[in-house]
Design the sequence.
Protein backbone atom coordinates (compact mmCIF):
# COMPACT_ATOMS: atom_id res chain seq x y z
CA UNK A 1 0.00 0.00 0.00
CA UNK A 2 1.32 3.42 -1.02
CA UNK A 3 0.29 6.88 0.13
CA UNK A 4 0.24 9.79 -2.31
CA UNK A 5 -0.47 13.39 -1.24
CA UNK A 6 -1.42 16.36 -3.39
CA UNK A 7 0.06 19.67 -2.13
CA UNK A 8 0.73 23.15 -3.50
CA UNK A 9 2.07 25.66 -0.95
CA UNK A 10 -0.08 28.37 -2.52
CA UNK A 11 -3.82 27.84 -2.27
CA UNK A 12 -6.22 27.66 -5.21
CA UNK A 13 -3.90 26.02 -7.72
CA UNK A 14 -6.12 22.98 -8.28
CA UNK A 15 -5.26 20.39 -5.61
CA UNK A 16 -8.83 19.23 -5.05
CA UNK A 17 -9.81 19.07 -8.73
CA UNK A 18 -6.78 16.86 -9.42
CA UNK A 19 -7.28 14.70 -6.31
CA UNK A 20 -10.91 14.11 -7.31
CA UNK A 21 -9.76 13.14 -10.81
CA UNK A 22 -7.45 10.55 -9.23
CA UNK A 23 -10.43 9.34 -7.20
CA UNK A 24 -12.12 8.44 -10.49
CA UNK A 25 -8.99 7.09 -12.12
CA UNK A 26 -7.41 4.94 -9.44
CA UNK A 27 -9.13 1.80 -8.25
CA UNK A 28 -8.68 0.02 -4.96
CA UNK A 29 -7.87 3.09 -2.85
CA UNK A 30 -9.02 5.08 0.17
CA UNK A 31 -9.39 8.87 -0.08
CA UNK A 32 -8.47 11.31 2.68
CA UNK A 33 -9.28 15.02 2.71
CA UNK A 34 -6.66 16.60 4.97
CA UNK A 35 -7.56 20.24 4.30
CA UNK A 36 -9.59 20.10 7.49
CA UNK A 37 -10.29 23.80 7.91
CA UNK A 38 -11.52 24.38 4.35
CA UNK A 39 -12.40 20.91 3.09
CA UNK A 40 -13.81 20.78 -0.43
CA UNK A 41 -13.56 17.25 -1.80
CA UNK A 42 -17.03 16.39 -0.47
CA UNK A 43 -18.46 18.90 -2.95
CA UNK A 44 -17.29 16.79 -5.90
CA UNK A 45 -17.78 13.34 -4.38
CA UNK A 46 -21.03 13.84 -2.36
CA UNK A 47 -20.06 11.37 0.35
CA UNK A 48 -22.61 9.40 2.32
CA UNK A 49 -21.48 9.53 5.94
CA UNK A 50 -21.22 6.04 7.49
CA UNK A 51 -19.30 6.73 10.69
CA UNK A 52 -19.10 9.98 12.63
CA UNK A 53 -16.61 10.86 15.38
CA UNK A 54 -16.21 13.84 17.68
CA UNK A 55 -12.80 15.51 17.71
CA UNK A 56 -11.50 16.80 21.03
CA UNK A 57 -8.73 19.24 20.16
CA UNK A 58 -7.81 20.10 23.72
CA UNK A 59 -8.85 22.08 26.76
CA UNK A 60 -9.99 25.67 27.27
CA UNK A 61 -9.95 27.81 30.40
CA UNK A 62 -13.18 29.10 31.90
CA UNK A 63 -13.25 31.80 34.60
CA UNK A 64 -16.05 31.78 37.14
CA UNK A 65 -16.78 35.50 37.55
CA UNK A 66 -18.46 34.97 40.93
CA UNK A 67 -15.18 33.67 42.33
CA UNK A 68 -12.80 35.91 40.36
CA UNK A 69 -10.98 38.55 42.46
CA UNK A 70 -9.86 40.50 39.36
CA UNK A 71 -6.30 40.42 40.70
CA UNK A 72 -4.85 40.10 37.20
CA UNK A 73 -2.43 37.25 37.86
CA UNK A 74 -3.92 35.13 35.06
CA UNK A 75 -3.51 37.99 32.59
CA UNK A 76 0.05 38.50 33.73
CA UNK A 77 1.05 34.87 33.14
CA UNK A 78 -0.98 33.99 30.01
CA UNK A 79 1.38 34.00 27.03
CA UNK A 80 -1.41 33.81 24.46
CA UNK A 81 -3.16 37.10 25.43
CA UNK A 82 -6.34 35.06 25.80
CA UNK A 83 -7.82 36.84 28.83
CA UNK A 84 -9.40 40.26 28.30
CA UNK A 85 -9.85 43.28 30.60
CA UNK A 86 -13.12 41.87 31.90
CA UNK A 87 -11.50 38.57 32.82
CA UNK A 88 -13.23 36.62 30.10
CA UNK A 89 -11.30 33.97 28.19
CA UNK A 90 -11.19 34.38 24.41
CA UNK A 91 -11.76 30.79 23.31
CA UNK A 92 -10.08 31.35 19.95
CA UNK A 93 -6.83 32.55 21.52
CA UNK A 94 -6.68 30.16 24.51
CA UNK A 95 -4.35 27.21 23.85
CA UNK A 96 -5.41 25.33 26.96
CA UNK A 97 -2.09 25.36 28.82
CA UNK A 98 -3.73 25.88 32.23
CA UNK A 99 -1.28 28.52 33.45
CA UNK A 100 -4.19 30.75 34.56
CA UNK A 101 -5.64 27.95 36.65
CA UNK A 102 -2.27 27.34 38.25
CA UNK A 103 -1.74 30.96 39.33
CA UNK A 104 -5.31 31.87 40.29
CA UNK A 105 -5.44 32.48 44.07
CA UNK A 106 -9.24 32.10 44.16
CA UNK A 107 -9.67 28.81 42.29
CA UNK A 108 -11.88 30.65 39.82
CA UNK A 109 -10.47 28.93 36.73
CA UNK A 110 -11.48 25.53 35.46
CA UNK A 111 -10.19 23.68 32.43
CA UNK A 112 -12.74 21.96 30.20
CA UNK A 113 -12.34 19.61 27.29
CA UNK A 114 -13.92 21.20 24.20
CA UNK A 115 -15.32 19.72 21.03
CA UNK A 116 -13.18 21.12 18.23
CA UNK A 117 -14.67 19.37 15.25
CA UNK A 118 -15.93 16.17 13.72
CA UNK A 119 -14.51 13.58 11.42
CA UNK A 120 -16.19 11.03 9.19
CA UNK A 121 -15.80 7.80 7.31
CA UNK A 122 -17.97 7.95 4.20
CA UNK A 123 -18.72 6.04 1.07
CA UNK A 124 -18.59 7.77 -2.30
CA UNK A 125 -19.19 6.62 -5.87
CA UNK A 126 -15.42 6.10 -6.06
CA UNK A 127 -14.81 4.28 -2.80
CA UNK A 128 -14.29 5.10 0.83
CA UNK A 129 -13.29 8.53 2.01
CA UNK A 130 -12.14 9.86 5.39
CA UNK A 131 -12.74 13.57 5.92
CA UNK A 132 -13.25 16.09 8.70
CA UNK A 133 -14.65 19.42 9.70
CA UNK A 134 -12.65 21.52 12.12
CA UNK A 135 -14.92 23.78 14.17
CA UNK A 136 -14.91 27.49 13.30
CA UNK A 137 -12.06 29.31 15.05
CA UNK A 138 -10.61 26.07 16.42
CA UNK A 139 -7.00 25.05 16.56
CA UNK A 140 -5.05 21.83 16.52
CA UNK A 141 -5.68 21.12 12.85
CA UNK A 142 -2.50 19.02 12.86
CA UNK A 143 -3.98 16.63 15.40
CA UNK A 144 -7.20 16.27 13.39
CA UNK A 145 -5.19 15.64 10.21
CA UNK A 146 -3.30 12.90 12.06
CA UNK A 147 -6.60 11.22 13.01
CA UNK A 148 -7.89 11.34 9.41
CA UNK A 149 -4.60 9.92 8.13
CA UNK A 150 -4.53 7.12 10.68
CA UNK A 151 -8.09 6.02 9.90
CA UNK A 152 -7.53 6.14 6.12
CA UNK A 153 -4.43 3.99 6.47
CA UNK A 154 -6.22 1.53 8.75
CA UNK A 155 -9.11 1.11 6.27
CA UNK A 156 -6.68 0.70 3.38
CA UNK A 157 -4.92 -2.10 5.26
CA UNK A 158 -8.15 -3.85 6.28
CA UNK A 159 -9.57 -3.67 2.74
CA UNK A 160 -6.28 -4.62 1.11
CA UNK A 161 -6.14 -1.39 -0.86
CA UNK A 162 -3.16 -0.42 -3.00
CA UNK A 163 -3.40 3.32 -2.41
CA UNK A 164 -4.26 6.08 0.03
CA UNK A 165 -4.79 9.34 -1.89
CA UNK A 166 -4.64 12.50 0.20
CA UNK A 167 -5.92 15.98 -0.63
CA UNK A 168 -3.51 18.18 1.32
CA UNK A 169 -3.88 21.61 2.92
CA UNK A 170 -2.22 24.78 1.59
CA UNK A 171 0.81 26.33 3.28
CA UNK A 172 3.83 24.61 4.82
CA UNK A 173 3.02 24.64 8.55
CA UNK A 174 1.41 22.39 11.13
CA UNK A 175 -1.35 20.66 9.08
CA UNK A 176 0.99 20.16 6.08
CA UNK A 177 3.68 18.57 8.22
CA UNK A 178 1.06 16.34 9.82
CA UNK A 179 -0.25 15.39 6.35
CA UNK A 180 3.22 14.43 5.13
CA UNK A 181 4.35 11.94 7.75
CA UNK A 182 4.84 8.49 6.27
CA UNK A 183 3.75 9.50 2.77
CA UNK A 184 5.43 7.82 -0.24
CA UNK A 185 4.96 10.52 -2.85
CA UNK A 186 4.03 14.21 -2.90
CA UNK A 187 2.53 15.70 -6.05
CA UNK A 188 2.93 19.48 -5.98
CA UNK A 189 0.35 21.32 -8.09
CA UNK A 190 1.46 24.80 -9.04
CA UNK A 191 0.42 27.56 -11.45
CA UNK A 192 2.59 29.58 -13.85
CA UNK A 193 2.97 32.59 -11.57
CA UNK A 194 5.83 33.96 -9.50
CA UNK A 195 3.76 33.33 -6.36
CA UNK A 196 3.02 29.76 -7.47
CA UNK A 197 6.72 29.01 -7.98
CA UNK A 198 7.76 30.76 -4.75
CA UNK A 199 5.31 28.70 -2.66
CA UNK A 200 5.87 25.42 -4.56
CA UNK A 201 9.59 25.79 -3.86
CA UNK A 202 8.85 26.10 -0.13
CA UNK A 203 6.57 23.05 0.05
CA UNK A 204 9.00 20.98 -2.07
CA UNK A 205 11.71 21.79 0.48
CA UNK A 206 9.44 20.66 3.31
CA UNK A 207 8.65 17.36 1.56
CA UNK A 208 12.32 16.75 0.87
CA UNK A 209 13.19 17.60 4.46
CA UNK A 210 11.09 14.57 5.38
CA UNK A 211 12.68 12.45 2.64
CA UNK A 212 9.59 12.21 0.41
CA UNK A 213 9.80 11.92 -3.40
CA UNK A 214 8.27 14.92 -5.18
CA UNK A 215 6.79 15.53 -8.63
CA UNK A 216 5.47 18.82 -10.03
CA UNK A 217 2.56 19.59 -12.32
CA UNK A 218 1.68 23.05 -13.68
CA UNK A 219 -2.03 23.76 -13.81
CA UNK A 220 -3.44 26.50 -16.12
CA UNK A 221 0.03 26.60 -17.71
CA UNK A 222 -1.11 28.63 -20.73
CA UNK A 223 -1.97 31.69 -18.61
CA UNK A 224 1.76 32.44 -18.83
CA UNK A 225 3.78 30.01 -20.94
CA UNK A 226 7.10 31.75 -20.23
CA UNK A 227 6.52 31.34 -16.52
CA UNK A 228 5.60 27.67 -17.11
CA UNK A 229 8.95 27.19 -18.90
CA UNK A 230 10.69 28.84 -15.97
CA UNK A 231 9.06 26.41 -13.53
CA UNK A 232 10.01 23.43 -15.71
CA UNK A 233 13.61 24.73 -15.72
CA UNK A 234 13.46 25.12 -11.94
CA UNK A 235 12.45 21.45 -11.67
CA UNK A 236 15.28 20.36 -13.93
CA UNK A 237 17.87 22.36 -12.00
CA UNK A 238 16.62 21.14 -8.65
CA UNK A 239 16.24 17.51 -9.61
CA UNK A 240 12.47 17.49 -9.14
CA UNK A 241 10.45 15.22 -11.44
CA UNK A 242 8.38 17.32 -13.85
CA UNK A 243 5.17 15.44 -14.60
CA UNK A 244 3.16 17.63 -16.93
CA UNK A 245 1.14 20.70 -17.84
CA UNK A 246 -2.61 21.18 -17.77
CA UNK A 247 -4.21 23.96 -19.84
CA UNK A 248 -6.71 26.48 -18.51
CA UNK A 249 -10.24 25.44 -19.47
CA UNK A 250 -13.54 27.06 -18.45
CA UNK A 251 -15.10 23.58 -18.75
CA UNK A 252 -13.17 22.61 -15.59
CA UNK A 253 -15.00 25.35 -13.66
CA UNK A 254 -18.30 24.15 -15.18
CA UNK A 255 -17.56 20.59 -14.02
CA UNK A 256 -16.91 21.82 -10.47
CA UNK A 257 -20.12 23.89 -10.53
CA UNK A 258 -22.09 20.79 -11.50
CA UNK A 259 -20.42 18.77 -8.72
CA UNK A 260 -18.49 16.44 -11.02
CA UNK A 261 -14.89 15.34 -11.27
CA UNK A 262 -13.38 16.46 -14.56
CA UNK A 263 -13.04 12.80 -15.61
CA UNK A 264 -16.83 12.54 -15.74
CA UNK A 265 -17.03 15.24 -18.41
CA UNK A 266 -16.11 13.72 -21.74
CA UNK A 267 -13.41 14.98 -24.04
CA UNK A 268 -11.44 17.32 -21.77
CA UNK A 269 -7.73 17.68 -22.54
CA UNK A 270 -7.14 17.96 -18.82
CA UNK A 271 -8.48 14.42 -18.28
CA UNK A 272 -5.90 13.00 -20.66
CA UNK A 273 -3.08 14.99 -19.01
CA UNK A 274 -4.10 13.80 -15.56
CA UNK A 275 -4.16 10.17 -16.70
CA UNK A 276 -0.57 10.56 -17.94
CA UNK A 277 0.45 12.27 -14.69
CA UNK A 278 -0.89 9.36 -12.65
CA UNK A 279 1.05 6.91 -14.84
CA UNK A 280 4.22 8.89 -14.21
CA UNK A 281 3.61 8.85 -10.46
CA UNK A 282 3.24 5.05 -10.43
CA UNK A 283 6.36 4.71 -12.59
CA UNK A 284 8.24 7.07 -10.25
CA UNK A 285 7.24 4.90 -7.31
CA UNK A 286 8.22 1.61 -8.90
CA UNK A 287 11.71 2.87 -9.84
CA UNK B 1 -7.48 51.63 11.42
CA UNK B 2 -6.67 47.99 10.71
CA UNK B 3 -8.12 46.29 7.63
CA UNK B 4 -7.33 42.63 7.04
CA UNK B 5 -7.81 40.67 3.84
CA UNK B 6 -8.75 37.01 4.32
CA UNK B 7 -10.55 34.13 2.58
CA UNK B 8 -11.47 30.60 3.47
CA UNK B 9 -10.21 29.15 0.21
CA UNK B 10 -6.69 29.88 -0.97
CA UNK B 11 -5.84 31.44 -4.31
CA UNK B 12 -8.95 33.62 -4.55
CA UNK B 13 -7.05 36.91 -4.76
CA UNK B 14 -6.24 38.08 -1.21
CA UNK B 15 -2.81 39.36 -2.17
CA UNK B 16 -4.13 41.02 -5.34
CA UNK B 17 -6.67 42.96 -3.27
CA UNK B 18 -4.33 43.78 -0.37
CA UNK B 19 -1.54 45.01 -2.67
CA UNK B 20 -3.88 47.07 -4.84
CA UNK B 21 -5.48 48.66 -1.82
CA UNK B 22 -2.06 49.56 -0.38
CA UNK B 23 -0.97 51.12 -3.69
CA UNK B 24 -4.15 53.22 -3.88
CA UNK B 25 -3.92 54.87 -0.46
CA UNK B 26 -1.48 56.98 1.56
CA UNK B 27 0.38 56.37 4.81
CA UNK B 28 -0.04 52.61 4.74
CA UNK B 29 1.61 49.96 6.86
CA UNK B 30 1.41 46.63 5.03
CA UNK B 31 1.80 43.36 6.97
CA UNK B 32 2.03 40.09 5.07
CA UNK B 33 0.87 37.61 7.72
CA UNK B 34 0.71 34.61 5.38
CA UNK B 35 4.01 33.49 6.85
CA UNK B 36 3.79 29.97 5.37
CA UNK B 37 3.45 31.23 1.81
CA UNK B 38 4.22 34.98 1.76
CA UNK B 39 3.77 36.52 -1.68
CA UNK B 40 3.06 40.26 -1.31
CA UNK B 41 6.76 41.19 -1.63
CA UNK B 42 6.70 39.75 -5.16
CA UNK B 43 4.18 42.45 -6.15
CA UNK B 44 5.41 45.37 -4.03
CA UNK B 45 9.20 44.89 -4.37
CA UNK B 46 10.00 46.51 -1.04
CA UNK B 47 13.49 47.67 -0.17
CA UNK B 48 14.27 45.87 3.10
CA UNK B 49 16.30 47.66 5.76
CA UNK B 50 15.86 45.40 8.78
CA UNK B 51 15.86 41.65 9.31
CA UNK B 52 15.17 40.06 12.69
CA UNK B 53 14.48 36.57 13.96
CA UNK B 54 11.05 35.24 14.81
CA UNK B 55 11.07 32.99 17.85
CA UNK B 56 9.04 30.67 19.91
CA UNK B 57 9.79 30.38 23.57
CA UNK B 58 10.87 26.90 24.62
CA UNK B 59 12.01 25.56 27.97
CA UNK B 60 15.69 24.96 28.53
CA UNK B 61 16.26 22.29 31.14
CA UNK B 62 19.36 22.37 33.31
CA UNK B 63 19.94 18.68 34.06
CA UNK B 64 22.53 19.53 36.75
CA UNK B 65 19.79 21.15 38.80
CA UNK B 66 16.92 18.82 37.83
CA UNK B 67 15.84 16.40 40.56
CA UNK B 68 13.56 14.42 38.21
CA UNK B 69 10.58 15.06 40.48
CA UNK B 70 8.25 15.00 37.47
CA UNK B 71 6.20 18.08 38.42
CA UNK B 72 6.85 19.71 35.02
CA UNK B 73 5.69 16.65 33.08
CA UNK B 74 2.57 16.45 35.23
CA UNK B 75 1.73 20.13 34.71
CA UNK B 76 2.34 20.15 30.93
CA UNK B 77 -0.99 19.92 29.14
CA UNK B 78 0.63 19.01 25.83
CA UNK B 79 2.65 15.99 26.99
CA UNK B 80 5.73 17.81 25.76
CA UNK B 81 7.91 16.75 28.71
CA UNK B 82 8.55 13.22 29.90
CA UNK B 83 10.52 12.37 33.02
CA UNK B 84 11.83 8.88 33.53
CA UNK B 85 12.81 8.28 37.10
CA UNK B 86 13.52 5.03 38.86
CA UNK B 87 15.64 3.91 41.72
CA UNK B 88 18.72 3.51 39.62
CA UNK B 89 19.93 7.12 39.36
CA UNK B 90 21.97 6.53 36.24
CA UNK B 91 18.88 5.83 34.15
CA UNK B 92 16.94 8.93 35.08
CA UNK B 93 16.16 11.15 32.15
CA UNK B 94 14.10 14.18 31.24
CA UNK B 95 12.95 14.57 27.65
CA UNK B 96 11.45 17.63 25.92
CA UNK B 97 9.51 17.27 22.65
CA UNK B 98 9.73 20.65 20.89
CA UNK B 99 7.10 19.81 18.27
CA UNK B 100 4.47 19.31 20.98
CA UNK B 101 5.52 22.34 23.05
CA UNK B 102 3.44 25.54 22.88
CA UNK B 103 5.93 27.54 24.94
CA UNK B 104 3.36 28.35 27.61
CA UNK B 105 5.88 28.48 30.47
CA UNK B 106 3.97 26.27 32.93
CA UNK B 107 6.90 23.84 33.36
CA UNK B 108 9.28 26.59 34.47
CA UNK B 109 6.71 27.96 36.91
CA UNK B 110 6.12 24.64 38.67
CA UNK B 111 9.76 23.56 38.86
CA UNK B 112 10.71 23.60 42.56
CA UNK B 113 14.45 23.95 41.92
CA UNK B 114 14.46 26.50 39.10
CA UNK B 115 15.97 24.05 36.64
CA UNK B 116 13.83 25.26 33.71
CA UNK B 117 14.47 28.59 32.05
CA UNK B 118 12.92 30.15 28.96
CA UNK B 119 15.02 30.08 25.89
CA UNK B 120 14.25 31.04 22.32
CA UNK B 121 14.24 28.96 19.18
CA UNK B 122 14.22 30.70 15.79
CA UNK B 123 11.26 29.58 13.66
CA UNK B 124 11.37 32.23 10.97
CA UNK B 125 12.48 35.70 10.00
CA UNK B 126 10.78 39.08 10.00
CA UNK B 127 11.80 41.65 7.40
CA UNK B 128 10.93 45.33 7.49
CA UNK B 129 11.20 47.70 4.58
CA UNK B 130 9.49 50.29 2.47
CA UNK B 131 7.81 50.70 -0.90
CA UNK B 132 8.37 54.26 -2.11
CA UNK B 133 7.50 56.77 0.59
CA UNK B 134 3.93 55.73 1.22
CA UNK B 135 4.06 52.09 2.26
CA UNK B 136 5.88 50.61 5.19
CA UNK B 137 6.22 46.89 4.44
CA UNK B 138 6.67 44.05 6.95
CA UNK B 139 6.48 40.33 6.42
CA UNK B 140 7.30 37.12 8.22
CA UNK B 141 8.66 33.98 6.60
CA UNK B 142 8.35 30.69 8.44
CA UNK B 143 11.38 28.41 8.18
CA UNK B 144 11.05 25.12 6.31
CA UNK B 145 9.77 22.26 8.53
CA UNK B 146 8.58 24.58 11.32
CA UNK B 147 4.95 24.00 12.35
CA UNK B 148 3.82 26.88 14.55
CA UNK B 149 2.98 29.75 12.20
CA UNK B 150 0.82 31.57 14.77
CA UNK B 151 3.74 32.55 17.00
CA UNK B 152 5.50 34.22 14.06
CA UNK B 153 2.28 35.97 12.99
CA UNK B 154 1.90 37.42 16.51
CA UNK B 155 5.44 38.81 16.32
CA UNK B 156 4.79 40.42 12.94
CA UNK B 157 1.69 42.01 14.43
CA UNK B 158 3.64 43.36 17.42
CA UNK B 159 5.09 45.84 14.90
CA UNK B 160 1.69 47.38 14.09
CA UNK B 161 1.64 51.18 14.22
CA UNK B 162 -1.96 52.14 14.75
CA UNK B 163 -1.52 55.73 13.59
CA UNK B 164 -1.16 54.35 10.08
CA UNK B 165 -3.67 52.61 7.87
CA UNK B 166 -2.69 49.01 8.55
CA UNK B 167 -3.40 46.46 5.80
CA UNK B 168 -2.98 42.80 6.74
CA UNK B 169 -2.67 40.07 4.11
CA UNK B 170 -3.91 36.97 6.00
CA UNK B 171 -3.34 33.26 5.31
CA UNK B 172 -6.18 31.08 3.94
CA UNK B 173 -8.37 28.81 6.10
CA UNK B 174 -10.38 29.35 9.28
CA UNK B 175 -8.08 28.06 12.02
CA UNK B 176 -5.36 29.45 14.31
CA UNK B 177 -3.08 31.21 11.79
CA UNK B 178 -6.05 33.14 10.35
CA UNK B 179 -7.42 33.99 13.80
CA UNK B 180 -4.06 35.37 14.88
CA UNK B 181 -3.73 37.36 11.65
CA UNK B 182 -7.18 39.02 11.69
CA UNK B 183 -7.74 39.48 15.44
CA UNK B 184 -7.88 43.15 16.39
CA UNK B 185 -8.94 44.26 12.89
CA UNK B 186 -11.58 46.96 12.51
CA UNK B 187 -12.75 45.39 9.27
CA UNK B 188 -12.04 42.31 7.23
CA UNK B 189 -12.41 41.94 3.47
CA UNK B 190 -13.19 38.34 2.49
CA UNK B 191 -12.07 37.61 -1.04
CA UNK B 192 -13.86 34.73 -2.72
CA UNK B 193 -14.75 33.28 -6.10
CA UNK B 194 -18.20 32.12 -7.21
CA UNK B 195 -17.34 28.41 -7.49
CA UNK B 196 -18.76 25.76 -5.13
CA UNK B 197 -15.34 25.59 -3.41
CA UNK B 198 -15.22 29.37 -3.06
CA UNK B 199 -18.78 29.48 -1.74
CA UNK B 200 -18.28 26.67 0.79
CA UNK B 201 -15.17 28.31 2.23
CA UNK B 202 -16.69 31.81 2.10
CA UNK B 203 -19.55 30.64 4.35
CA UNK B 204 -16.98 29.19 6.81
CA UNK B 205 -14.96 32.42 6.76
CA UNK B 206 -18.14 34.47 7.33
CA UNK B 207 -18.97 32.31 10.37
CA UNK B 208 -15.46 32.94 11.65
CA UNK B 209 -15.93 36.70 11.31
CA UNK B 210 -19.21 36.56 13.25
CA UNK B 211 -17.60 34.38 15.92
CA UNK B 212 -14.77 36.92 16.26
CA UNK B 213 -17.15 39.87 16.07
CA UNK B 214 -15.32 41.56 13.18
CA UNK B 215 -17.25 43.65 10.63
CA UNK B 216 -16.70 42.28 7.13
CA UNK B 217 -17.56 42.57 3.46
CA UNK B 218 -16.95 40.53 0.31
CA UNK B 219 -14.97 40.94 -2.86
CA UNK B 220 -15.92 38.42 -5.55
CA UNK B 221 -13.00 37.71 -7.84
CA UNK B 222 -13.35 36.07 -11.28
CA UNK B 223 -17.04 36.85 -10.78
CA UNK B 224 -18.00 35.47 -14.20
CA UNK B 225 -16.51 31.98 -13.60
CA UNK B 226 -19.07 30.01 -11.62
CA UNK B 227 -22.58 30.53 -10.29
CA UNK B 228 -24.37 33.14 -8.17
CA UNK B 229 -24.55 31.35 -4.80
CA UNK B 230 -22.04 33.69 -3.15
CA UNK B 231 -24.08 36.74 -4.16
CA UNK B 232 -27.34 35.19 -3.01
CA UNK B 233 -25.78 34.34 0.34
CA UNK B 234 -24.41 37.89 0.74
CA UNK B 235 -27.83 39.35 0.04
CA UNK B 236 -29.56 36.99 2.43
CA UNK B 237 -27.01 37.60 5.20
CA UNK B 238 -26.67 41.33 4.57
CA UNK B 239 -22.96 41.13 3.74
CA UNK B 240 -21.87 44.13 1.66
CA UNK B 241 -20.37 43.17 -1.70
CA UNK B 242 -17.56 45.70 -2.06
CA UNK B 243 -16.38 44.76 -5.53
CA UNK B 244 -16.72 42.21 -8.31
CA UNK B 245 -13.67 41.62 -10.49
CA UNK B 246 -14.26 39.76 -13.77
CA UNK B 247 -11.88 37.08 -15.00
CA UNK B 248 -9.45 38.49 -17.52
CA UNK B 249 -6.48 36.81 -19.17
CA UNK B 250 -4.69 40.18 -18.99
CA UNK B 251 -5.25 40.31 -15.22
CA UNK B 252 -4.10 36.69 -14.81
CA UNK B 253 -1.01 37.35 -16.97
CA UNK B 254 -0.08 40.45 -14.96
CA UNK B 255 -0.53 38.52 -11.73
CA UNK B 256 1.71 35.73 -13.01
CA UNK B 257 4.55 38.22 -13.56
CA UNK B 258 4.14 39.85 -10.18
CA UNK B 259 2.46 43.00 -11.54
CA UNK B 260 -0.21 44.55 -9.31
CA UNK B 261 -3.75 44.90 -10.68
CA UNK B 262 -3.67 48.70 -10.28
CA UNK B 263 -0.55 48.89 -12.41
CA UNK B 264 -2.14 47.37 -15.52
CA UNK B 265 -5.63 48.77 -14.83
CA UNK B 266 -5.02 52.13 -13.08
CA UNK B 267 -8.75 52.89 -12.96
CA UNK B 268 -8.93 50.40 -10.08
CA UNK B 269 -7.06 52.87 -7.84
CA UNK B 270 -10.14 55.05 -7.51
CA UNK B 271 -12.28 51.94 -7.01
CA UNK B 272 -10.09 50.77 -4.12
CA UNK B 273 -10.10 54.26 -2.57
CA UNK B 274 -13.91 54.24 -2.74
CA UNK B 275 -13.96 50.80 -1.07
CA UNK B 276 -11.79 52.21 1.70
CA UNK B 277 -14.17 55.17 2.22
CA UNK B 278 -17.08 52.76 2.34
CA UNK B 279 -15.28 50.64 4.96
CA UNK B 280 -14.62 53.80 6.99
CA UNK B 281 -18.33 54.62 6.91
CA UNK B 282 -19.28 51.07 7.93
CA UNK B 283 -16.82 51.14 10.85
CA UNK B 284 -18.11 54.51 12.08
CA UNK B 285 -21.76 53.45 11.87
Sequence:
Amino acid sequence: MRQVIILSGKGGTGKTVITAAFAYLVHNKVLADCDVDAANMHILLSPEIKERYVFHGGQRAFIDSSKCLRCGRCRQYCRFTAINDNFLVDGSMCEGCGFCKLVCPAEAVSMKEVISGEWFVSSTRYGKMVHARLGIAEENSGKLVALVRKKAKQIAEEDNCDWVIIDGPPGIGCPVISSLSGVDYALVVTEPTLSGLHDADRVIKVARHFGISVGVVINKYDLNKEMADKIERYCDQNNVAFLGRIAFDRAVVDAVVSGKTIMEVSGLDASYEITCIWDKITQGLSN
Amino acid sequence: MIISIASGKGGTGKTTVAVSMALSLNNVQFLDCDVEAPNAHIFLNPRFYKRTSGYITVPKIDEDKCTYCGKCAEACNYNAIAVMSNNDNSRRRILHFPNLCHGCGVCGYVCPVNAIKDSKREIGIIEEGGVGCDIEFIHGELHISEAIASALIRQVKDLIRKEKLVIIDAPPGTSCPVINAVSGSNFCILVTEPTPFGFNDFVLASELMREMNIAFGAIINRCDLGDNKVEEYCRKEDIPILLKIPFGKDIAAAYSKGEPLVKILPEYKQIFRDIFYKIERICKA
